Every structure is written in C-alpha cells, then in structure tokens.
Amino acid sequence: MNDRVAVIDVGSNSVRLVVFDGAARSPAYFYNEKVLAGLGAGLGETGYLSPEGRRRALAALHRFAALLERIKPAQLMTVATAAVRDARDGAEFCAQVLRETGLVLNIASGPEEGRLSAQGVLLGWPDAEGMVCDIGGASLEMAQLSGGDVSIAETAPIGPLPLMDFKGSEAALRKKIKREIDRLHSRIPGPAERLFLVGGSWRAVARIDMARRKYPLHVLHEYERSTEDLLRTAKWIARQPVEKLSQITDTSLDRLRLLPMAARVLIELLKTYRPKTVAFSSYGIREGMLYEAMTPEIRALDPLIEACRYTESQNARFPGFGDALFEWLQPLFGHLPAPDQRLILAACLLHDTTWRAHPDYRADMSFETVTRANMGGVDHSGRLFLAVANRSRYKNDGAVIDDHPAIKLLATDRVKLATSIGRAMRLGAMLGAAHPVTLQNTDLRLVDEQLQLTLSGPANELMGEVVHRRLNSLNSAMGLTQSAIILSENAKQH
User: Fold this and answer.
1) What's the pTM?
2) Structure confidence by residue, pLDDT tens digits, 435-493
3) CATH second-level architecture of 303-488?
4) What CATH number belongs to 110-287?
5) For the segment 264-314, what is each residue's pLDDT rounded down to a tens digit?
6) Does domain 5-107 have CATH number 3.30.420.40?
7) What DSSP character marks residue 446?
8) Burial 255-273, CB ≥16 within 10 A → b, else e
9) Alpha-helix residue ranges (DSSP H) falling in 214-273
10) Considering only CA atoms, which of 401, 398, 322 is closest in space to residue 368?
C-alpha cells in the first residue's frame, strides 16, 4: 500500500486519470493520462451524451480501471461534470460505467464544480484573492476567493460545446453569452482585482498569447496578463480559423476547435469584471480534489517550500543541508524582507539537486530545471530569481545568464541579488562538501562594508585557495571592494 491519491475526472470534453504521489502540499504527478472523448458534443441539440463520446470515454475508463488495479492508490476520487450532469442519459451512463468497470462516478453540481476548481487555485496560491473562472467543454464555473476560502460558486451553460451548437446569428450568440455572464456577475459581483483562469481552453489561450508576444518562459502556471492585453489576444483568436491557430501552437486540433468560442466567452468575462490582472492556473478541479484530501496542517504549509523540500529529499547528496545553508546565510542576508527570505530558503533547498549532471552542464541544467519545475506558489519573476541563484551556485560566469532571453523578466537589481545569493551558496557548499556539520565553525557576514569569513577551531583546516577565490567572487557580485578571511583558534560553542 502507498499514499498515492488517484483522481478520475469525466469532463464534457476530456476524460482524465491523474495519480498524485501522496496528498502533499505541492502536487507530484505520479501518473497523468487524458483522452479527448467529447462526451458533451451535440448535447445542446439532442439533450444526450455523444454516442461516439460515450464509446471513447467508456474505453478510457476501462483502461483507467485496469491501471488502478496495478497502481493500487491509497485513495480514489472521481468526478463527472457538466455533460454527465445535464444529459438525459447521464445517470444511465454512470450506471454503465459502474457495471462494466466497477468505478463509481460522483456527479458534481455546478457550484460544487466551481468550488473544487477554486480549491485547485488555492493549492497553488494559498492566499489567493479574487475570482476563479473555470471553463470546461459544456459549462463555465465561477467562484470567489477571499481569505483563503471559497465564499461562493456559480455555473453557467456557456462552455464551447453548447455554444458551437447555437443556431442563431453572431449578434444573437454574443447576446446569449453576455446574458449568462451578467447573471453570474449579479450573483458573484466581485471585486475581481485578480482573475484566475482554469481549464484547457484558457491554457490554450495562454499558449497562443505567449507565442504572439514571443514570451521567453514557457510556463503556463502563474502566467499573468493585464485585461487590455488579454482582450486583444482573445479578440484575435475569436476571428481565426482553426488552421491559423494550429500554425501558432502545438495544441491538439480537438482543443483548437473549441478555442474561438472560448475566446468569445473570455471577451465578455473580461469586459464585465475588468480585473487588473489575469493569472492562468495549471491547477484546477483535479488538484482541488487533492486539496480535499489534505489535512488542515498540510494545507497550511507553503507550496513552494514543500516542493523544494521534496526535490531536495529526492535529488540532493545531503538532504537537510539546504536548511543549514539558509541559516548560515542569515548574517549576510537576514535583513531582507520575508518574501526574499522565502526565495532564499527555496534556493538553498534546490542548490544541490542537479549534482548528477555532467560538471560542464550543471549550471545551465540547474537554470533550465528550476524555470520549468513543477512548483506552485511562485510567479515567473520568482522562478527566474531561483534559476539565477542556482546557476550562480555552480558557475561564476554571468554571461550566459545575461544572454538568456527570459532574464528580461527579472529586474537588474533582482538579478544582482540572486547572483550574490548563488555565489554565497557556492562558497558555503564547498566549505565542507555540502555536509551540514561542516558549517558549524564558519561564519559569513558583512562588517563595515567588508565581507568577512571566519573559520574557527577545526574549520581552520578548510582554508585553501578555492575558499579565497569563491569569497572574492561573492565580494565582486555584491559590489564590494574588501573581503577578509579570519582564522580563529577557538571553536564555536554549540
């Protein structure tokens, strides 16, 4: 038996199995498989699930049941959303699934679906404030987040699939969308200074927006745009044929066919709520169900720090050294504000996790790994900060960092700080081959604009040419002119 949590999500467009490696604060995806079944195709016209969608969904669920027999998760959670909920044969489909696969599909109400999606956002943003909007194949769910809780959730039948079945004019279609958005707005008025977008269609919008502006960091989670910028992209998408969209992104054609309708919904959503910023979330209903499985104690943890701790436990030579290194750096960087302290701790936890790479490529691999890591609770500038710090931990040369296209996302002073932290980590790591005990008789701090490294008692033996070189490198990164190494006969008292 293991502590893995499996989630089966039967949506209007896709059927998905995700197995999380435990109910940890930062989700680790042990297994992830999606089938674009299209259960909700034609539902608006017929009132019934698509026969071909049923066949494909049932085949996928047979396979998922077989996989789960082999994976044997500690917990299985299932959810069926708008298409199954609204179809006349939805209950009969669930009965067939139970009969043929043994899987019990739990049909979520519209507000329940919205609540689960909002909990997915909380998984990545524990203190999220604003509106969550999740678009599926058949419906749109909205929820309000305040004080780390979901305060209210509603639903509307304006997913891309039913809209594609709409027989009226373009003007009538816009009127229908506006009417439903206005109804949602009357029930959930906001405020919506920040709008969180959840769902595959929104993520496809983000990919296209990134491609159009040549955005250098291809991470969808916490990708942010202003209302005005995103409106321009949504209006452009709404006018494009699928063939044109497929030239810009490698998103599947099945998804792209839904995108112009999803863009029309997004246009009206942005015009109505007028958020200051819009953030795209890779976490949604499945992560929201994982959130359900967490204890209050686990929910209270920091997702970024927990993701980094997990990475350290799996990949570092000496798990636990990251905390010791963070404490060692406090005399030098302890004056920085709490958000920076959080990033420094994360950097320290990650500082030795690419050591298995070839020495010639460790620095660059560290940079690329951190920028693409599965981490919640950190925005794109934070990712770049961690990436610069960890590259600088392995290499003094800043030229590659300066030339990297993504570095423009980080202000110059932040690049300088991250570089300094990286070089300080580099010094601390080499003082005793990254073992926590070796730092006990060493001290690094700034005294009267002079960088001072003190080696006490047995730590005197660690003195060498490389120590001088790495201290000078840190000195240079911090823009200082003086540094000193002090040797003390007396060991520290612990």
Assistant:
1) 0.91
2) 677 788 899 999 988 999 999 888 888 888 889 999 999 999 999 988 889 988 776 65
3) Orthogonal Bundle (1.10)
4) 3.30.420.150
5) 999 999 999 999 999 999 999 999 999 988 999 999 999 999 999 999 999
6) yes
7) E
8) bbbbbbbbbbbbbbbbeeb
9) 227-238, 242-246, 253-256, 259-273
10) 401
